[in-house]
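Hi everyone, sorry if this is the wrong subforum. Our group has a chain we'd like a structural model of before ordering constructs, and none of us has done structure prediction before. Sequence below.
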Amino acid sequence: MPLTLASCRNRVERFLAKNELRLDDVDYYAVVSRLGDDTILAGGGLDGDIIKCIAVDDSLRGTGMSQRLVSHLVSVAQDRGIFNVKVFTKPQNAAIFGDMSFHTLATAPLAVLMENGMGGLSSYCSYLSSLRTDKGTNGVVVMNCNPFTLGHKHLIDRAAAQVDHLYVIIVKEDKSLFSTRQRTAMARKACEDMINVTVCDGSDYAISAATFPTYFLKQLTHASDTQMTLDINLFARHIAPALKATVRFVGTEPCDELTARYNELMKQLLPQQGVDVVEIDRLALSGSVVSASHVRSLIEDEKLAHAVKLVPETSVPYLVSKQAITALRKELATTPKPGLIDTIDNGAHSDMNYDLMLTSIKSLEPYFDQLALLDYPTASEVQHIGIEAEKSMLGATGGVNTHRGALFSMGIAVVGVSQDLLHGKKWNETVKSLASDIPASRSSYGAMAKARHNAKGALDLARGGYDEVSSAWLPFYQSLDDDENAAVKTLLFIMSQLDDTNIIHRVGFDRAQQVKNEAASSLEDFSLDKVTALNSRFVKENISPGGAADMLALTFFINSITKH
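Answer:
Right subforum, don't worry. Here is the predicted structure as tokens:
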């Protein structure tokens, strides 16, 4: 049933409501309908590896339709390469799923969590057992680390001092600003010198979409207690024994109502199952509790310089990389942008769109991580990572050059900013030094524009340490303060000054100079209607100020280390 069609979605919602259920997030939904009038008689869905929203009309009860429906969903999952399928169900339905080879993982008064297939939880517990030390007292802390902050390090330090060995389990679910890969890497780097701490891979069995989906909504609902109880029961029955853990550590939660309730339930339930719960006071700096949510809000607000004060040095490169990604996404979302892709149209581009640009940006993030992690980098190291990043980008976009220019300018700036924040070397000096060791291309748009018209290309701007950003474009952007059109106006300002080699390549040097004048005129007598009209003209003439877009993103990024 295609739930993207409103008519189909409404039919499913009405059917589920009739059976006292609601439609949850699913990526596949199958129905059984009556021939002739399309009445839904049974239905069930998949959300990744989780079976959801199973309902059967009273007229089909006792016919084995539930089993046929579940068998179909399991088959669909297997076709997708998923061989461990989970289901939430009411306790009275456990026997039905048991007959279909599902086994119980965890129980709560109102629900059970079951799984079928080989491996799954048993494989994860085997992995945990392989990490276990059998000497002394073992403790566990489960963390999201989105990102890893000084507060997380404080909790680990305090917990590790109270046990012989501490196991840190990172939440696996990729529903956070920072990916599982990034969060796990941050935790491991922060703990690598602690001999009695092991950072474990996360799984679908500890605070996941399977065990505790409302955690990622940060809302208490009527279902939250049931989900928390299942998650806690699964921990006590399987994960704690695999690690021979007798203590679970948690941080106090003064702000988040849902996490505070989770802590309360753990303190009630885990001691009954042989696991003590120790609550550790959260770290406070300048009277405020250090929280990952505050760090994330600082990144979104372009305040990287403030955010890095709340994380250990080992997390700084990941914050730099994320800030760069945030800047690229902000540039993409800036609307309207004459000749460029924005939230309204594709500008002068027939081979790109907004979603493809987002895919491109996502493909670059692991390489920005690598660039930010370089310690005292060389130009050859930067170039090598850049080449690999370009391959990844082209692979993600089907060969379309979406961000080659931005990859160069933002990539080299990521290196510079990381060195600035970690070692105190000015970001633009690092950029100058690296760019001076990068040989000029003879075939790039910038090289040809420089040879014919003495226009600065991307490498020339970098060799100057992006002086124009610091001296002109950033001060202009910051002067606009709370202007809701600050991003659009800054783009026009950059366009009015930059010899954009993308425009020169498309329509020639003389027309590019006219574009600069048109941008200046649009800025002087600014209105969104005039920018929209400028976009229409640029689309007709195939004008795309891609170089200015790259510099706008760079301006956003550099703003983040100067904004107070």
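For your construct planning: The mean pLDDT is 92. The chain has three domains: 6-116, 121-290, 294-559.
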